[in-house]
Amino acid sequence: YEGLTPGCHLHPFNVTIRSDRRGTCKGTHLVYACVGYCESSAFPSRYSVLVASNFTHNITSASRCCTISKDAKVRWRRCSSNSLECLLVSARCSCPLTRPPSGQSASGLPSRSTPRRNRDPDGEGVSLRHVPQVPLLTRQDPPRTNEHRDKNQTTV
Amino acid sequence: VNLRRFIGCAVREFTFLARKPGCGGLHITTDACWGRCETWEKPVLDPPFIESYQRVCTYNETRLVSVKLPNCQPNVDPTYTYPVALRCDCGVCLTSTTECITSV
């Protein structure tokens, strides 16, 4: 997989279909998966979530996943019985972007920290405290620890 | 950093309203996690006919911070504790510690 771009895209791959138990009669079909990088975020849970989880869920994760939004059927003929078989394959992919609403909403998502940032749905101009050098799933070294100091807050 | 093209998971500032019954609210700006992690779905021959891989940008290392909420009633503890992200990573959403909200 080479497409390191945001979004959710069709990605071809081969599937091998064996039509008898010994696998002597088999064929390869090109089908599609949905592969991509979708927005996700995690933030402190609302108090109602804390209470409902007996104070075990102090983090809320809101995410979108790259999914098959529409499928199609691929047909092939069994060589042993000459019957038609079907395989559902991806025809369209979906990865709608996460859009945290402004303020504390019913969904529990927090707002970004300034009004300007709230008008900036793609986050341009928002600072990232730690940005990895390479995509995280292929990164081996741990990220740098972020310094966070706030004199009004105390560490428990 | 061009966030429109950003791939990965990073610490990012978020502001939320800390509140609980019997106290006033307090806007808190803290470090949380944001990014884009790899997810996929592919068709397979056997039930349930879909195989999926889902990783989300979430806390990898945290510290807890406590603040005191304003205008609390006498019988209400004003302390409000929340996690601050020290490191974020793409990973499985752990339902043991995390409220996982995934929508398609």
UniProtKB/TrEMBL annotation, chain B:
Domain of life where this protein originates: Eukaryota
Residue ranges constituting the Glycoprotein hormone subunit beta domain according to the UniProt record: 9-101
UniProt-annotated location(s): Secreted
GO biological process, one term: regulation of thyroid hormone receptor signaling pathway
Coiled coil stretches, renumbered: none
Keywords, comma-separated and alphabetical: Disulfide bond, Glycoprotein, Hormone, Secreted, Signal
Known role: Functions as a heterodimeric glycoprotein hormone with GPHA2 able to bind and activate the thyroid-stimulating hormone receptor (TSHR), leading to increased cAMP production. Plays a central role in controlling thyroid cell metabolism.
Subunit structure: Heterodimer with GPHA2; this heterodimer interacts with thyroid-stimulating hormone receptor (TSHR), and hence stimulates cAMP production.
Name of protein: Glycoprotein hormone beta-5
Protein's organism: Sparus aurata (Gilthead sea bream)
GN (gene name): GPHB5
